[in-house]
Design goal:
Length: 211
């Protein structure tokens, strides 16, 4: 594949395209992907992308140009990352997610199926584009919409179906339309009974136990 620098031990399905040329008027640079990439069928990764080690994609994923993505990144079926986003380490993006241009996603964020991210304060206007900043360890529930130019605080949990129109403080459970802060994540109980508290200081106890 052209316009591509790969690390060791890549696994790329035959129908995947890596190093796809953008139609935007930018200087074309190779896409660089680290070690142990697993890129599944019908994934398209454009030129001018930097991705760390242990990338894993589902099927029908699109990663546009000028994205910078860290290590241990996974993105599942039919999700799209538009151009010029910054994504940290250990980020997990589930199926049917759209990440708009100029979005910042810090380390250890989880986006559930159907999350949609907006970046345009005035639709069709390109001068004011700015996606949200999703801070470290935040978890965004199924079918949540995040509006432009907001900040989701560290280790915050956004409930399913919410529309987030304003900043949400760190370590906060928020939900609704518009989403409102409800309580600290430290107050949450595990409804399945597997743990007294699902989060300790905002961190998912299951993630903590594996580290």
């Amino acid at each position: 594949m052209k316009n591509l620098i790969l690390g060791t031990n890549p696994q790329i399905d035959d129908s995947a395209v890596v190093g796809y040329l953008t139609g935007r008027k930018i200087e074309i640079k190779p896409t660089v992907i680290g070690d142990n990439a697993r890129i599944r069928s019908n994934t398209v990764i454009y030129t001018n992308v930097l991705i760390g080690n242990n990338l894993e994609t589902g099927h029908n994923v699109v990663i546009r140009e000028e994205n910078k993505i860290g290590n241990d990144f996974s993105i599942w079926n039919s999700s799209t990352i538009d151009y010029r986003c910054e994504i940290g380490d250990k980020v997990r993006i589930h199926c049917n997610v759209y990440v708009a241009q100029f979005t910042v996603i810090e380390d250890e964020v989880f986006l559930a199926p159907g999350v949609k991210i907006a970046n345009d304060l005035h639709p069709i206007c390109t001068r004011c584009m700015k996606g949200p900043i999703i801070k470290r360890g935040a978890r965004v529930g199924v079918n949540v919409t995040l509006l432009p130019n907001i900040t989701i605080g560290e280790y915050t949990v956004i409930g399913a179906g919410s529309v987030v129109t304003k900043d949400i403080p760190p370590k906060t459970l928020a939900y609704g339309n518009p989403a409102r802060p409800i309580k600290s994540v430290d107050e949450l109980k595990c409804l399945s009974g597997n743990s007294d508290k699902p989060y300790i200081n905002g961190v998912d106890v299951r993630t903590r136990s594996r580290s």
